[in-house]
Amino acid sequence: MNHMLPLPLSLVILAAAGILIIYYLHLMIMSQQRLRKWPIYRLLCWVTGIVMATAVMVGPLADRMHSSFILHMYGHLMLGMLAPLLLVLSAPMTLLLRSLQVKHARQVTRLLSARYVKFITHPVTAAILNVGGLWVLYRTDLYHLMHESLIILLLVHLHIFLAGYLFTAAFVYIDPIAHRFSFKYRAIVLIISLAAHQILAKSLYPYPPAGVSRPDAQVGAQVMYYGGDLIDYAIIFLLCLEWYKAVRPGKVIRQQ
To answer: Which of 45, 223, 232, 79 is nearest to 165 (CA)?
Structure first.
């Protein structure tokens, strides 16, 4: 298979990334005209997250990921963990609700309260989609197939990105969420999820995916293990910070 994405598809991805950045900036300007100033660091998080996710799909890194399991794993961390974390920190839904008219904001709020949204944002569901998807990718023939089929490649990357975002949003409540779960519940599910991710990383060290040499697999497994740790620490810190703010004197957050 030719590892280069077709030029039209690459242009579509680049255009979509540009539109997302411009639209966020547009919402930011609208919000600042109506309400208080929007933090600039959230804009930086959004732009950086979009750029990282795009770099995994289009460009030199995206091309070399197909022939190097080590670079593939760096791309996995960027697309499935770091970029989603940055996008969650940018609070896009909060910005959207602040920018919309009351009528449209209520429609979005009703959508966020739907049963389907409650299901996919449940911590257990999000963990299964995220970590479970990685187990399927690396412990079946899917990793080999994604390098043979452009459609499978795009679907796998899309799943990794969306599942990573859902996972982060399900444990770190930056944006408003209709169905909240307690800190203890989220902490327990998070610990189990991180353990499953680490076990998968360790299993890649002695048992590489099909078509991956053992030396590349060993380095890639270490990238997944230790690189994932760094991003996991950030999620744990944000969860604990939210917990601290909720239990400090004079501050109470109702959760189910």
So the answer is: 79
